[in-house]
Automatic annotation (TrEMBL):
SUPFAM superfamilies from the UniProt entry: 4Fe-4S ferredoxins
Name of protein: Ferredoxin
InterPro entries: 4Fe4S_Fe-S-bd
Domain 4Fe-4S ferredoxin-type stretches: 5-34
Length: 69
């Protein structure tokens, strides 16, 4: 099994809906004392790829992005 590429939440685009946290709690969490989400780990095996890609597509703010290297 491989690892997922690195991804992140653009907090300026985050709509605070929490859908990413519900969909992939292994990767996302709420920022303490704020209403936005963040990635607490992107080091997941590639079996999570469909779920991460789906939440990227479903995110109302289009705030979940692949980090460019």
């Amino acid at each position: 099994m491989g690892k997922l590429p690195e991804f992140y939440v653009d907090q300026d685009l985050c709509t605070e809906c929490g859908d990413c946290i519900k969909a992939v709690p292994q990767a996302f969490r709420k920022v303490e004392d704020e209403e936005v989400a963040e990635v607490h780990t992107w080091e997941l095996d590639d079996t999570f790829m469909p779920r991460v890609q789906q939440i990227m597509t479903d995110c109302p703010g289009r705030a979940i992005l692949w980090r460019k290297k």
